[in-house]
Every structure is written in C-alpha cells, then in structure tokens.
C-alpha cells in the first residue's frame, strides 16, 4: 500500500504515535499487530493496556489477538503478505509467552483489553475503601432517568428552601418546570466535562476569567477565518460590505461594516464586523440554526443592493457580489467557518447573563448532591461518576496516590482505539496514567482514530482533543503523527469518487476550538 512506511513505523515499540486512520484503512489490524509486537518487549502481558470505547470493539480486539496466537501455535497456513506479517508477530509473541511462562493460550484474560469504562471500574475497584462508591455501586444504562429525578428533586428542595438560584434559573426558562428539569438533567450528564468550570465559576474573579476565555476562543476562530479567506474575498468583500452598509436599515448587522476597507482583524472586538459579512453572504437554511450561501437572486435592496439600470454603479455592485457568491460555491469549508462566527458567543457577559450562569452553577451543584444520594440509595451510578472516581483515586501528577504509583510501575504501553471519541474526563485519565513517563524510558502511547468519524458527542466526546493531542501531546508524551491512506474496504473507483466529492466539504485546516478537521483522502 502507499502508506507502507507509516504502517511499518507504527510497529516500533520504542516510539509513541498518533495515527489518523480513515474508515477502511485497517486500523484494527494495525492495533493488533502493535499489541503483538509489544508482547516480547514486556516482562508481563499486563504491562500493555489497550483501551477502546465499546464492549463490542474490546471483545473483537481480544478475540482477534487470541485467534492470531492460537493459529500461530497450530501452524495454520496463511495467505497474503499482510497476514503473514501478523503471523510472524504472533509467533514472536508466543516465543516470549513460552520463555516467560505467561500461559496466554490458556489464560487470554491476561491480555488487558478494556473499554474506558471498564478500566475506570478496575481502578476504582483497587481502592474500594477510599472510594465514595465503596465498591458497592454498579454502572447503570439508565443514567438519564437518574439525572431527571435528581433535577426534579433539586427543583423541589430549592423551592421549599427559597433558594434564589433555583428561582433565577426557573425564571430564565419561562417558569416551566419541565424545561428546568430538562436543562439541569442535561448539565448533570455533562458534569464531568464541566467539573473544573463548576469549581471556578463561583470563585473571586470568575467572571473576568470566563470573559478572558471567551475572548481567546473568539479571537482564535476569527484568526482562522481571516487566514483562510480566499484571495477574492480579501480583495472584493470589504468594499462590497461598506457599499451595502450605507444602504441597509440601521439595525441590520451589515450596518457595522460601514467604512470597511479591509477584512476585519482577528481580535474579539471585530466580531460585529465578521457578523456583518456573514449577514451579507449567508441566509438561514431551514430555521435550524444552519446557514448557506445567499443565492445570486437574493442580492437585493434588503442587504444593501437596490436595483439600478444597466451600466449604473448599482448594477455593477450587484453583479460583483453575485459573482463573489458564485466563486464561494467552491469554498464550502470557509463558508462553514463564516457561518460559525454568527453563533460565536459575545466575549462579554451582560449582568443578566452572568446572573443566569451563576444560578446554573449553583443549581447543578445542588442537583449533583441529590444525584449522589440517588446513587447510594439505588446502588447504581452513571459512567461519568465512575470516571470521576477513577480520576480522584489516582490523585494528581504533583501529588500521586499510591494507586497511581502502582499503575505507573505496572503499565509500559497504552494503546487507545477510536481516540476521536475521547471526552475531557477520559483525556484527564490518560494524562494521569502517563504523568510519570519520561522521554526514553521505554514507555509508549499509541493513539488511533479518525476525527471525521466522531459519534460520541452525547458521551461528552470532543474531536478537539484529537487535534490538541496532535499539537500539544498528552501529558508529557509527544506522539509522532502518522496517517493511513490505503483503503481495503471499498473499490478504488468508489474511493476516488468519494475523495473528489467530500474533500471540498471540509475546512482547509484544523480548528480545535470548533472541532473541525480537514478531509483525509482514503
């Protein structure tokens, strides 16, 4: 395959990698090959931990590794260079197994292949007396029911006690209890993602810190928008927007562009100008918060382009904008980024908005207390609680617990499948597990995923983490980047057709803040 060099590099047991593996690229086989390659390099098989996100995927990986070992032991014939390579790796692993007396054929459970939730349960179970779960609670698949019940109890107790925060949030949702419960239940489901924010939102200087964070987010997005603007946009759009700004109603967002001579800068203060440009070029699509390019026929008096006789300035300006809109049909990635700026938050909180934010934080803390009591009463917890308990059990990089020190001594290699579906809490877990690693100490991190396939947003997954890992690493580990390109699942003609049509729909560059990724051709 054209990416053979990347596939060979990925099996180096001394290096850490972040592998971008599109659908059909054989990533599961690559994970299996690396796992087999690592076995001869460790004193015990438990020193290798493979993590994935579903029980089905974990079971499949374990079965395929065990099958590779069994077939190698039986000497079953194999065909194809790829399978022969896997066979050679399995034979080397079996040799290590015999030499060190592991008994993997009889005890395949020694292969530590876990879902992320199972790993968290394993960690919590090793310190039952120190865990608030006390080893009694089990994960539930009905977390939504518990979240809603806790939200209902928070509303009832808050009203009974006259809690002003409950009253403020209830007023914010129009006094509708069902909307209050739905909002608080959703926030409870995401409490792992917002754990740090919940702690900071009520402290001194919280509003200033939050506004500074908003400014950074907005500025980063606007910088990308400006950098990726097509040349024709940079040359023609400013004067067209300034022309339109003098002819629209004063309350139109386009009016902010009066006197514009160049594309706005990336600073958060320029957000109204970018929104004005978006209002000129885009229209709502279906009333669902989506936007699309304005059609040439939609260039009219409403957006500052009144009709004029042929040869007039009005007619020329209108034709110029229509031509620019047609050109932008070929830049869907930039158009999508421009649409996003319409929904970027204001970098400053109005007093009323901050009051609601403070109330929401206080109510979520109240609801979380009710949720914990429900966990104790029913002997069931959600996966978020298990993950939080595991993180707490490990301590911190500056103050590691005995458990973290023990795990640090045990684990030599971590492999993570479907890394694009990682949440902030799970990322924190990986950072803790690798906190004591040092360059050249023989320990490796192997992350595999495809940010174009992220599907676990409902479990707090963030594609941005994949991009951040590529740029900044995970904890002290700075993995090398690899990309798989070969596609073993579809006909070449179909792959080429998909590449040609899908590539223009993706942005030209990565944008961690928005979770956007460029297209990777198969």
Number of strands: 10
Report the structural category. Answer: alpha/beta
Could you list the spans in which at least 5 consecutive residues all have pLDDT below 50? 454-461
Helix content: 40-55%
Query: Radius of gyration in whole Å, from Cα?
Result: 27 Å
Q: How much β-strand is present in the residues?
A: 5-15%
Keywords for this structure?
alpha/beta, Rossmann fold, 6-stranded parallel sheet, 52% helix, globular
Describe the structure.
With 522 residues, the protein is of the alpha/beta class. Helix content is 52%, strand content 7%. It is built from 20 helices and ten strands. The chain has helices at 4-9, 27-38, 55-74, 81-100, 116-125, 143-161, 164-172, 177-189, 195-200, 206-227, 231-245, 271-281, 313-328, 332-341, 351-378, 383-394, 402-410, 424-433, 463-472, 492-502, and strands at residues 17-20, 48-52, 112-115, 138-139, 282-284, 291-293, 380-381, 413-416, 444-449, 480-483. Strands 3-2-8-9-1-10 form a six-stranded parallel β-sheet, sandwiched between helices. The chain has a two-stranded parallel ribbon with strand order 4-7. The protein has a two-stranded antiparallel ribbon with strand order 5-6.
């Amino acid at each position: 395959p054209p990416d053979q060099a990347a596939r060979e590099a990925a099996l180096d047991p001394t290096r850490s990698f972040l592998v971008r593996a599109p659908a059909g690229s054989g990533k599961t086989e690559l994970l299996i090959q690396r796992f087999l390659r690592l076995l001869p390099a460790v004193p015990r098989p438990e020193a290798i931990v493979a993590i994935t996100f579903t029980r089905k995927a974990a079971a499949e990986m374990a079965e395929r590794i065990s099958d590779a070992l069994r077939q190698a032991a039986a000497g079953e014939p194999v065909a194809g260079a790829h399978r022969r390579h896997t066979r050679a790796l399995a034979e080397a692993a079996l040799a290590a197994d015999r030499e060190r007396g592991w008994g993997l054929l009889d005890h395949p459970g020694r292969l530590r292949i876990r879902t992320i939730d199972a790993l968290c349960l394993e960690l919590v179970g090793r310190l039952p007396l120190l865990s608030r779960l006390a080893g009694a609670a089990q994960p539930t698949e009905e977390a939504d029911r518990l979240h809603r019940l806790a939200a209902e109890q928070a509303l009832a107790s808050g009203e009974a006690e006259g809690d002003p925060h409950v009253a403020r949030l209830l007023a914010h949702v129009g006094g509708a209890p069902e909307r209050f419960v739905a909002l608080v239940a959703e926030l409870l489901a995401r409490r792992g993602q917002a754990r740090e924010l919940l702690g900071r939102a009520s402290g001194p200087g919280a509003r200033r810190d939050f506004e500074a964070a908003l400014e950074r987010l907005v500025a980063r997005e606007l910088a990308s928008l400006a950098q990726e603007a097509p040349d024709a946009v940079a040359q023609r759009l400013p004067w067209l927007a300034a022309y339109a700004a003098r002819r629209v109603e004063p309350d139109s967002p386009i009016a902010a562009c009066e006197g514009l001579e160049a594309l706005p800068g990336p600073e958060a203060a320029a957000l109204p100008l970018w929104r004005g440009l978006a209002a000129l070029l885009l229209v709502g699509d279906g009333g669902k918060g989506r936007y699309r390019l304005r059609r040439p026929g939609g260039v009219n008096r409403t957006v500052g382009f009144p009709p004029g006789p042929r040869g007039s300035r009005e007619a020329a300006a209108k034709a110029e904008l229509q031509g620019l809109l047609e050109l932008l049909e070929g830049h869907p990635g930039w158009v999508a980024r421009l649409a996003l700026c319409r929904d970027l938050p204001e970098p400053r909180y109005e007093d009323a908005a901050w009051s609601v934010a403070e109330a929401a934080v206080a109510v979520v803390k109240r609801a979380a207390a009710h949720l914990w009591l429900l966990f104790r009463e029913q002997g069931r917890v959600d996966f978020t609680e298990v993950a939080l308990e595991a993180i707490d059990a490990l301590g911190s990089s500056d103050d590691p617990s005995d458990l973290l020190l023990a795990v640090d001594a045990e684990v030599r290699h971590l492999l993570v499948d479907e890394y694009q579906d990682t949440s902030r809490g799970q990322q924190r877990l990986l950072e803790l597990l690798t906190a004591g690693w040092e360059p050249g100490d023989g320990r490796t991190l192997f992350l595999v995923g495809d940010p174009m396939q992220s599907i676990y947003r409902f479990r707090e997954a963030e594609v941005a983490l994949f991009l951040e890992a590529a740029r900044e690493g995970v904890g002290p580990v700075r993995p090398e980047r690899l990309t798989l390109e070969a596609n073993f699942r579809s006909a070449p003609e179909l792959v080429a057709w998909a590449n040609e049509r899908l590539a223009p729909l993706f942005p030209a560059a990565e944008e961690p803040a928005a979770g956007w990724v460029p297209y990777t051709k198969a």
